What does this fold into?
Amino acid sequence: MAIVSSDPLAHLYRAHHGWLHGWLRRQLGCSHQAADLAQDTFLRLLGRRSADLGEPRALLTHIAKGLVVDHWRRRAVEQAYLEVLARLPEAQAPSPETRLLVLEALCRVDAMLAGLPPRTREIFLLSQLDGLTYGAIAERLGTSLITVKRHMRNGFIACMAALED
It folds into this structure.
């Protein structure tokens, strides 16, 4: 005897999981990754406060597209990190546990930077990666020192928020 549920999310899962998995498999080229992202899509939906499921495929596609973007961004960060590790002498290579921790931190930083407004990100990176002083950044970008300080403050606030996650 089949169990019947009145839960709209359970119905949505049964009705659309196969379609979503197929769509993700075509996007990613991997059935296993598609299965993971399909599950993550429904978990995100489960965490939503609103129960409006008016256009379920549009909603599922919207959520899944964001997860696919996150997936490819993470893969790019991971690939760059692995390329750096490959150049290290074997004696200096970090343990697998350390590699995972560093990769997670890099992905959080990447997501934080991607979430900043473009001007804030540019100013923040000029300071933190290029080592420019606030005055040099203001001169280079033709803006005021107070504006640079405001953008840097916002960048640091975003960093602290990323650390709390």
